[in-house]
Amino acid sequence: MKSLRGRLLLATMLVLVGMWMLWSCLHIASMTSEHTGWWDKSLRDVAHQIITSLPENINLLSADSRRLQLPANEKAGHDDLSFQIWGSDGTSLLRSMESPTVPLHPNFQDGFSIEEVDGRKWRVYSVQDASGKVHVQTGIPWDAFKMDLKHWIKGAFLAALLVFITLALTLKTVVRWSLKPVTCLQQDIAERQEYDLTPLPTKKLPLELKPLIESFNRLLLRIDTAINNERQFIADAAHELRTPMAAIQTHAQVAAGSTTPEETRAALARLVTAVERGTRLTQQLLDSARLESNYGVKHERVDLVRVIKLVADEFDIVAQQRQQTITINAQPCSVCGDVDELGILLRNLLDNALRYSGQGSRIELMCGIAPSTDGITLCVKDNGPGVPDPEQRARIFERFYRADQDHRRGSGIGLSLVRRIAYSHGAELEVTEGLDNRGLCISVHFPVLKNDTP
Asked: Is the Cβ–Cβ distance between 17 and 54 less than 8 Å?
């Protein structure tokens, strides 16, 4: 059964039925028990009351007076009950109208017993008075006892059935009322538009459902963030790719219209530069989208020196073409992070240094343990013009911000990626002067890696 309402009702009713059956079994056992049964108590009570009510001259009663009916108040609830009073010599002194003529208990032993008299089974109780002169026997036919038991079970069953029906209707109403907030929540979700990701209300929900809905709301928030990031990515891509695509189109048209080989080569060279810028911008936009959608990245120990060497090898040809020098000054060290994201971080720092430091410049990649914090520091230094203005230095990590406003050289995305990756790794960024008391140095201070052995 998949319905929560049905499960609650079924489970409750099964428990109630089980409790009723257990109670019925115990009650039936109690009724038929020799010592505690309801009929045994009645037989015993009537017998003792007869003994206390006997006249002293009971032996002088006439034969016509020895067959009596119990008074109405004594027979209330005991219509099939019979009694016999016997003398110590075995003489019948008194008996009820329905009682057999022979003793119900031939042995005249005190207590309860089951006897067969005149082919009929009886439940009998025998007791002797204190003087030992009179013996009283009370009994009820066994078939009457079973019939009474059947009537009682039937009545109890009908009463229980009525109670169960009442409880079922009550429980159905209570469960429906309790699950009303869930029904309202279901209607709220069903009536929402496709991109309506506002959090679901939790004010009137039961305490048991609040954690579930709060978790669902957090999921909605992540989905909303992902959709907004996707929209922002599309908008950014459309905006940023417009310029290089226009440049590519212009240079291609110029190359197509060139009349001399020199003009064609110059136009093609500019076309290649525009394509390179478009390629670089596309890669940065893709890296940005990857970071925005990269939830739950598992961080692990990363050899930072190995990352530095791999990234430096990627840019070796570019540096040679610009007559630039890349040097590595790295101590063995590791950080806790994602190797792909750390590669993007270093790649953008090095690309930024190569692009803005100018022809013939020097770029140094450093990593090691910071003496002041025992953490790991990664530095990318150059001896280019740098960013002397403190206000511009504070803004170089903003998205689409360009310190020199030269749209042909950068997109303003690379350093924003650096900041986001650094923050996701718990690292801090610092901008200072670079090599030879000039240029730019961007340092990334990573937190201490536990159990790190440099």
From this structure: no
Homologous superfamily (CATH) of 300-446 is Histidine kinase-like ATPase, C-terminal domain (3.30.565.10)
Looking up tokens 């950080």 gives: 335
Residue 138: per-residue pLDDT? 92
Element (H, E) at 388: none
Please name which of 307, 370, 310 lies closest in space to residue 341, comparing C-alpha atoms.
307
Task: Express each pLDDT in 329-369 by its tens digit.
Answer: 989 999 998 888 898 899 889 988 998 888 899 999 999 98
Q: What is the pLDDT of residues 91-114, one digit of tens each?
A: 888 888 888 889 988 888 899 888
Rounded to an integer, what distance in angstroms lies between the CA atom of residue 121 and that of residue 119? 7
- Among residues 434, 417, 420, 336, which one has the least CA distance to residue 379? 434
Closest CA to 129 of 55, 216, 209: 55
Name the DSSP class of 384. S
Strand pairing of 428-432 and 441-446? antiparallel
403: confidence class by pLDDT, cuts 50, 70, 90: low
Give me the pLDDT at residue 450, please. 66
Q: What is the pLDDT of residue 240?
A: 60
Identify any residues that bridge with 445 across adjacent strands, giving them in sequence order: 377, 428
For 432, the enclosing helix (H) or strand (E) is strand 428-432
Q: What is the largest CA-CA distance in the chain?
A: 160
Domain residue limits, the chain: 38-140, 193-295, 300-446
For residue 312, count other CB atoms closer than 10 A to its CB.
18
What 3-state class would DSSP assign to 406? coil
pLDDT of residue 74: 47
With CA atoms as reference, report the closest residue to 427 among 311, 349, 318. 349
Relative to beta strand 134-141, strand 325-330 is: unpaired
| C-beta separation of 145 from 79 below 8 A | no
Q: What is the pTM of this model?
A: 0.49
Instruction: Kindly report the CATH number that applies to the domain delimited by 38-140.
Output: 3.30.450.20
Q: Considering the domain 193-295 in this protein, what is its CATH number?
A: 1.10.287
252 phi and psi, to 5 degrees? -65, -40
For residue 113, give the amino acid letter: S
Using one digit for the tens of pLDDT, what is the confidence trace for 263-318? Answer: 888 888 888 877 876 777 777 677 766 666 665 567 889 999 999 999 899 888 88
- 126 φ/ψ angles, rounded to the nearest 5 degrees: -120, 145
Residue pointed to by tokens 């002194």: 93
Within 13 Å and on the Cβ side, how many CA atoms surround 231? 6
Yes or no: say if 93 and 86 are a contact pair by the CB < 8 Å rule: yes
The average confidence (pLDDT) of the chain is 80
